[in-house]
Design brief:
By secondary structure, the chain is α+β, with helices and mostly antiparallel strands. It has 3 helices and 12 strands, in the order αβββββββαβββββα. Strands 1-2-5-8-11 form a 5-stranded mixed sheet.
């Protein structure tokens, strides 16, 4: 099954929808709670993922995932290279989100193949990878920024576990030094 027969403008919309559905499907298959974050994507967060239980002493750790789907995922040794739009890069690199952000990229083949029907089931066709951009420097570009996604961070049980145990739990807040006694020390 393929999106190749669909006109390019429509194909981009359907690719995005397919990528989000992929994340929902992978999460459900791995026992991770998942849901659409909001009806309007104003804050660059498509899906909320939550581990139902405790990880690292935190009950129900969650992340917000921005999903991108592309036929332009490039092989870069141990990483995938992806041209992320600058506006999304700016949001995802911030460190002050209450719920931390993840970028997930679904790489589809150029021929548009999305599903493969096999005798023992239906397979999703493509590459997945995820990364946190938290703390990266701002880009000087107004159009795109190349981001590198580790090939070993995929949307599978180990990948979801790593994502939620690292980014779904609270981090220490940076607290400014304050001398409450006012004695100059």
């Amino acid at each position: 099954m393929s999106l190749a027969h669909i006109p390019q403008g429509e194909r981009n919309l359907l690719q995005g929808d397919f990528g989000e559905a992929w994340v929902h499907t992978a999460a459900a298959g791995c026992g991770i709670d998942h849901g659409t974050h909001a009806t309007v994507d104003r804050i660059k967060a498509d899906i909320r993922l939550t581990h139902s239980g405790i990880i690292g002493g935190v009950r129900n750790p969650s992340v917000l995932v921005q999903v991108k789907t592309t036929i332009d995922l490039r092989d870069h040794d141990t990483h995938w290279a992806y041209d992320l739009d600058a506006a999304t890069h700016e949001v995802l690199r911030q460190t002050d989100h209450q719920t931390r952000r993840i970028l997930a990229v679904i790489g589809l083949s150029e021929d548009g193949e999305t599903l493969r029907l096999e005798q023992d089931g239906t397979l999703l066709v493509g590459q997945t990878s995820w990364v946190s951009l938290e703390g990266l420097d701002a880009t000087d570009s107004t159009s795109t920024q190349v981001v590198y996604l580790p090939k070993d961070q995929v949307l599978d049980p180990d990948g979801f576990q790593a994502m939620l145990s690292t980014y779904g739990v609270p981090r220490s807040s940076q607290v400014p030094e304050v001398n409450e006694w006012g004695d100059g020390s």
